[in-house]
Amino acid sequence: MRWGDGRRGLTLFGTTRPFRYPPLMDDPDVIILGAGLVGLTLACALDAHGLRSVLIDPAEPAAALAPGFDGRATAVASASWRMLNAIGVGAQLEGRGCPIARIEVMDGPKPGGLSFDPGRPGDPLGVMFENRDLRAALRARAETGGNIAFRQPARAATVERGAHGVRVALADGGGAELRAPLLVAAEGRNSPTREVAGLRVARWRYDHRAIVTAIGHERPHENVAYEIFYPAGPFALLPMLDGTDGRPRSAVVWSVAAKDGPALAGLPDRAFAAELEKRMGGLLGRVGPIAARSTYPLGFHHAAKITAERLALVGDAAHGIHPIAGQGLNLGFRDVAALAEVLVDGARSGLDLGDPILLDRYQRWRGLDVLSVAAATDGLTRLFGVGGRAASAVRRAGMAAIDRVPAAKGWLMAEARGESGELPTLLRGALV
User: Fold this and answer.
1) Is the model's pLDDT at 119 over the cut of 70?
2) Does the first or last residue of the chain, that is N or C, have fewer Cβ atoms within 10 Å of its Cβ?
3) DSSP state string for 383-426
4) What pLDDT score does 371 carry?
5) What is the number of H-type helices and E-type strands within the chain?
6) Which of 111, 139, 115 is nearest to 22 (CA)?
7) What is the pLDDT of residue 22?
8) How far apart are the two ends of the chain, measured CA to CA in Å?
9) How far does Cα 269 stand from its chain's mean position?
10) CA 88 to CA 194: how far, in whole Å?
C-alpha cells in the first residue's frame, strides 16, 4: 500500500482541507479509469454495497473542483436523484438544487405545445444542479467511503486484460501496479481504453454548436423548464436557484448553427442578452446579468457493444447524444445503477466480477435503453431542424395529439424521469 502526496488541498463547498490519498488497495474489486461525474458515482454506488474500487484519473483533484473547470448545469432526472440519495450523495447536495416542477415543450415561442406536469406533489420531474456542486458532493462522499481509493493525478501506462484478471501499471513515477477482476472505462467520449479494446463506435457530427451559460432574468421561472425548438437548433431554459443578489436565474443551453457559434458566444453582454430575449419570446422578461459563456461542438456516438473481456464501458465512453432532451448524464447514471446491481448480485453469488455472464447481463440490460434514447434524441434533432410553416404546422399538430393521449404523454414523462424499462434497484431509491 502507498500513500499519495499529502501536501495537496481540496476545496469542497467553500471549505479547503488537506487531501491525502487513501491507501492504495492491493486487491480492489474494480479499477475505474476516470474520476468524472459517472466514475465517481460508480465508486460511491459500489462502496455503498461493500465493493472496493480504485479511481485513476490524470486531472489534479483541486483543478477538477475549481469553479471554472465546468460551468455547466445538469437536470438530474428524478430516478437518478433517487439513486444519489440511496448511495449517500443527496445529503451533500441539500439546498443546492432547484426542483423542476414542469417542462414546457414549444415549436418556436408560440402558444401551444406540450406541457409535462408530474401531478404528484413533492415529486419533481428532476432537479437542476451546477456541475461543480455535483462533482464536489460526489468527491466528498467518495472520500468518506472506506472502500474507495484514488490515484490522481495518474495515468494507466499499460493495461492488460486476460483470462485471470486485469493488470494496470501506473505512469505516476512510483511504478505502482494494480490488479482486479474488472476494469471500467469512464474516460469520456474519447475513451482510449474503448479504442484499444476494438469496440466500434457509430459517430457523426451535427452542424450545431452549443452555447452554455447562466442568466439572471426579470420574472421568476416558477420552477418551469422550457425547451423551445427552432430550425437552427433547440433552445433550453432550465430553472436554477436564485442568485446571491436575489435575482431569478436559469441555465441556458442554446444550439446554434456551427458557423454562428463562436460569433454569437463572443457578443458583448448587451447584444447577447438581446439575442437571448428574442429566442425567449418574452417568457421571463429582460435578461441580465450573464455568466461566463462556453461553446462546444455537438455530436453523436454510440458503441453497439459496451463490454469486452473483463471490461465495461459507462457514460460517455459508451454513448454520447445531443443535449436536446437533457439525458446525457442521466444515461450515464443509468449505466452506473445497472452495472452496480450486476456486480453486487455477482459478488453475492460468489462469481468472479469479470465473468462473461455478468458482463453479458450488463450489455443486455443497457443496450436497448441506450439505443432507444439515442435514436429518439437524434430523431427529434432532425425533425425539429426542418424549417418552414408546413413542417411547423405538422409538428404542432403532433404535439397537440400527444397532449390528448394520456398513455403517450405518460410514456414521454417516464422517459424524462428516467423511469422507463426495467429499472435497476438504485433508480427506485433503494440499495440492491
Assistant:
1) no
2) N
3) HTT--SHHHHHHHHHHHHHHHT-HHHHHHHHHHHHT--SS--GG
4) 77
5) 11, 23
6) 139
7) 46
8) 30
9) 29
10) 30
H or E element: which one contains 85?
helix 78-86
H-run or E-run covering 336: helix 328-348
Answer for the pair 210, 323: CB distance below 8 angstroms, yes or no. yes
Going from the C-alpha of 411 to that of each of 59, 376, 432, the distances in angstroms are 40, 13, 26
Cis status of the peptide bond prior to 289, with omega within 30 of 0: yes
Task: Report pTM.
Answer: 0.88
Place of cell 441539500: 94
Per-residue pLDDT for 123 more than 70? yes
> What confidence tier does 167 reach under pLDDT thresholds 50, 70, 90?
very high
- Decide: helix, strand or coil at residue 183: strand
Distance between CA atoms of residues 26 and 52, nearest Å: 10
One-letter amino acid at 9 equals G
Structure-block grid coordinates of residue 143: 472520500
**CA distances in angstroms from 364 to 241, 314, 359, listed in the order given:** 39, 14, 9
Q: Cα–Cα distance between 88 and 48 in angstroms, integer?
A: 8
Instruction: List Cβ<8 Å contacts ≥24 apart for 191-196.
Output: 191/313, 191/316, 191/317, 193/33, 193/156, 193/159, 193/311, 193/317, 194/303, 194/313, 194/317, 194/318, 196/159
Beta bridge partners of residue 319, listed in sequence order: 302
Is residue 153 reached through a cis peptide bond, with omega within 30 degrees of 0 on the bond before it? yes
Q: What is the mean pLDDT of residues 308-315?
A: 98
- Only one residue has cell 438504485, namely 426
What mean pLDDT do residues 15-19 have? 45
On whether the CB atoms of residues 19 and 63 are closer than 8 A, the answer is no
Q: What are phi and psi of 290, to 5 degrees?
A: -120, 130
Query: What would the grid cell of residue 368 be?
Result: 436497448
Name the grid cell of 289. Answer: 446579468
Contact 24, 5 (CB under 8 A): no
- 271 residue type, one letter: A
Rounded CA-CA distance 173/391 in Å is: 60
Q: Which residues pair with 367 in a beta bridge?
A: none
| Apex 26 CA angle, 22 and 27, nearest 5 | 110
Question: What's the chain's Rg over C-alpha atoms?
Answer: 22
Q: Are the CB atoms for 298 and 306 separated by under 8 Å?
A: no
Lowest mean pLDDT among 17-26, 304-313, 408-417: 17-26
One-letter identity of residue 169: A
DSSP assignment letter at 72:
-
Cell of 358: 455478468
Dig out the grid coordinates for 295 from the structure.
461553446
Pick from 153, 137, 81, 144: nearest CA to 333: 81
